[in-house]
Amino acid sequence: MSQILKKIITRLPPSPTGNLHVGTARTALFNYIFAKQNKGEMLFRLEDTDKARSKVEFEEDILAGLGWLGIDFDQSKMFRQSERGDIYKKYLEKLIADELAYFSKEKVEKEGDRDEVIRFKNSNKKITFRDTVRGDIEFDTTELGDFVIAKSLEEPLYHLTVVVDDFETGVTNVIRGDDHISNTPRQILIQEAMGAPQPIYTHLPLILAPDRSKLSKRHGAVSLIEYKNQGYLPEAMVNYLMLLGWNPGTDQEIFSMSEFLKEFDLNKIQKGGAIFDIVKLNWVNKEYIKKMSDVDFKKNIVDFLPEKIKNKDENLLIKILSVIKERIDKFSDVTNIVEAGELDYFFGMPDLKKEDLIWKEDGADIAKQHLDKVIEILEKIENFSSENIKENLWDYATKQGRGSVLWPMRFALSGQQKSPDPFTLAGILGKKETLERIKKAIDILC
Ligand code: GLU
């Protein structure tokens, strides 16, 4: 028998009561990718029935964040629940006419002037629904009582609006956070009362902090925008978020969007909470930075560069950027590196202390002897590139002991306990500056 396959419709219905949360961003990606894999569509709506907490600036932040991640959807189909009062009213009136909901006279706390709400007439049955992640879930709805679905015909509440919207827009798959699992039985009761079909439910494990508590601000940033502002790459963020609660079952950790479209499997979502691990995120981001061309790297980091670096001449800037690229996990790290003075050797002669120039037990004489020889070798090099410098010095350094030769040379050039290797430094500083710095170090050693 042939079966008519329904177009898969997923949805992302954030409440604009805060900036785009990393959890919502992950939910968005799973909805987006699952829909795309099935040649379906992800719809977007704003659940702004909470008038006091919903703000346009949050709507804008949510949309900008999704755009930054590359999640697109048909904006012409986007709507706000606040614009659909008439539609919800129609459904409420029908439920009341069918005696499946009723006005209930009562005093509502904190809203002394209100004396009526609309309650759903609960038939108090057991409901079983299938969740993609958790399997069959049984729920005795008796404990829910006749729950409130609207404050009035004009003021519907969350459970009613969700069910109406999902029904009216033909949603086939509800993919959302685990925290909504306890809302599902109420929503199924309303669906049944309206004669709406039940979508397939997939409740995603919550994103937890490393201590397995609920992820919150005290663990660091929870808004996507903060990651953008810190200079994480959107591709890296997508990659990282996709691995929160799902893994391919192989060792692969870096995925392009087209690989995710091939590999992602909604049926393989894990049950347990997913840990938001900043160390892993930094690792993923660094992998993406490593893959960037120098031109792209420069274009992306330029807004993060402190003035002191930005104004360097183009050739030197490109060389400095190659050192920075090795050292950072995310673009904003450059500020710390510069502020800590770690790149100061690019901007002027470092201050040198005699004892720092000496490798372990060597003594000043040996350090001086090696630096004299290094100068002799360097003076003969015409093409003063890092590779050439290394090639010319390597045999001498290997014979004499690399630490013994290369430590004083590196320290003479950088004045720092930690810096790139001396060949890289010399290549960046150029022949004249390199020789001057080493000569100055020899003077100090005498
Ligand atoms: N507006 C809800 C939220 O932001 C989503 C509701 C749902 O996915 O059903 O948490």
TrEMBL record:
MF-aspect GO terms: ATP binding; glutamate-tRNA ligase activity; tRNA binding; zinc ion binding
Subunit structure: Monomer.
Listed GO CC annotations: cytosol
Xref: Pfam families: Anticodon_2, tRNA-synt_1c
Annotated protein name in UniProt: Glutamate--tRNA ligase
Signal peptide from the UniProt entry: none
Keywords: Aminoacyl-tRNA synthetase, ATP-binding, Cytoplasm, Ligase, Nucleotide-binding, Protein biosynthesis
Motif ('HIGH' region): 14-24
EC number from the UniProt entry: 6.1.1.17
Domain Aminoacyl-tRNA synthetase class I anticodon-binding: 303-442
InterPro entries hit by this protein: aa-tRNA-synth_I_cd-bd, aa-tRNA-synth_I_codon-bd_sub2, aa-tRNA-synth_I_CS, aa_tRNA-synth_I_cd-bd_sf, Glu-tRNA-ligase_bac/mito, Glu/Gln-tRNA-synth, Glu/Gln-tRNA-synth_Ib_cat-dom, GluQ/Sye
Top EC category: ligase
